[in-house]
Design brief:
The chain is α+β, with helices and mostly antiparallel strands. It has a domain at 73-118. Helices cover 31% and strands 27% of the residues. It has three helices and four strands. The chain has helices at residues 74-80, 83-92, 98-117, and strands at residues 16-17, 21-22, 40-54, 60-72. The strands form two sheets. A two-stranded antiparallel ribbon has the order 1-2. The chain has a two-stranded antiparallel ribbon with strand order 3-4. β3 and β4 form a beta hairpin. The longest helix has 20 residues, at 98-117. It starts with 15 loop residues before the first strand and ends with a helix.
Length: 118
């Protein structure tokens, strides 16, 4: 990454298919060659409260609450945390411990290979 302070702001995007609309529910961030993916993303959740307030022209506008969330790069956490702590983070996020996930992933890969070979 460039040593000078960058003013690049990550933009979250979704891929669209011409015929069917959204082709993936997993967003992506296009990262310029001179930048790096941020290790942490801050995203505001915006939720309407069900209440309204008058706008500048007297119209009723919905009141929204903003709640700040933080999303960390799991690869960085995996490289910096010991296995036990990393598994605690995974379980807290609703994921399985790494050893369980690896075993299940290996079983799925074997089934795919068997289906291809047969």
């Amino acid at each position: 990454m460039n040593s000078a302070k960058s003013h690049w702001v990550p933009e979250i995007m979704y891929e669209e298919s011409n015929e069917l609309g959204l082709s993936s529910h997993i967003p992506f961030i296009p990262v310029p060659a001179s930048e790096e993916m941020p290790p942490l993303l801050y995203i505001f959740e915006s939720r309407e409260t069900g209440e309204t307030e008058p706008g500048s022209n007297g119209e009723e506008l919905p009141v929204t609450e903003m709640d700040l969330h933080q999303y960390a790069d799991m690869a960085i956490l995996k490289s910096k945390l010991d296995t036990t702590t990393y598994d605690l983070v995974r379980v807290a996020l609703g994921l399985e411990p790494m050893s369980t996930a690896l075993t299940k992933g290996s079983e799925i890969s074997k089934k795919i290979i068997n289906n291809i070979n047969n």
